[in-house]
Amino acid sequence: MRPTLVPGDGLLAVRCGTPKTGQLRVFPDPRMSTRYLIKRVGGVRRSPEGTTFEAVSDNAGAPGVTDSRVFGWVPAAQSYRVLWTVRSAR
């Protein structure tokens, strides 16, 4: 999520609310459930099955970037909204 977040930054995230475009969300990696990803909400879809969102990277052209272009839309029920970030001491 560079440049918004860099390795070592801290954050406070809570499970709440419906995703909104532009928010940062934390969620389990759909390809490796033991790892969590932090992405920005690109779009939101509501359906009778539940709400999903498009997880987009801030730096989509960086090597190794993975987001909804790779793994599809993410269930909102499994995500946390980032409320606060703390820059690491560099």
Mean pLDDT reading = 92
Strand order of the largest sheet: 1-6-2-3-4-5
Number of strands: 6
Radius of gyration over C-alpha positions, nearest whole angstrom: 13 Å
CATH top level?
Answer: Mainly Beta
- What is the CATH superfamily? Umud Fragment, subunit A
What percentage of the residues does DSSP assign to strands (E)?
Answer: over 45%
| Tally of domains | 1
Q: Which percent bin holds the helix content? A: under 10%
**Uncertain spans:** none
Structural class: mainly beta
Instruction: Give the CATH architecture.
Output: Ribbon
Question: Distance between the terminal alpha carbons, to the nearest Å?
Answer: 17 Å
The biggest beta sheet reads:
6 strands, antiparallel
GO molecular function: serine-type endopeptidase activity
Organism: Mycolicibacterium chlorophenolicum
InterPro entries: LexA/Signal_pep-like_sf (IPR036286), Peptidase_S26 (IPR019533)
Protein name: Peptidase S24-like protein
Task: Describe this structure as you would to a colleague.
The protein is mostly beta strands. It has a single domain, classed as Umud Fragment, subunit A (Ribbon), CATH 2.10.109. The chain is 4% helix and 48% strand. It has one helix and six strands, in the order E-E-E-E-H-E-E. It has one helix at residues 68-71, and strands at residues 10-14, 24-29, 32-47, 50-56, 74-75, 80-86. A six-stranded antiparallel sheet has the order 1-6-2-3-4-5. A hairpin with a 2-residue loop joins strand 3 (32-47) and strand 4 (50-56). The longest helix has 4 residues, at 68-71. The mean pLDDT is 92. One of its GO terms (biological process) is signal peptide processing. GO terms for molecular function: serine-type endopeptidase activity. This is Peptidase S24-like protein.
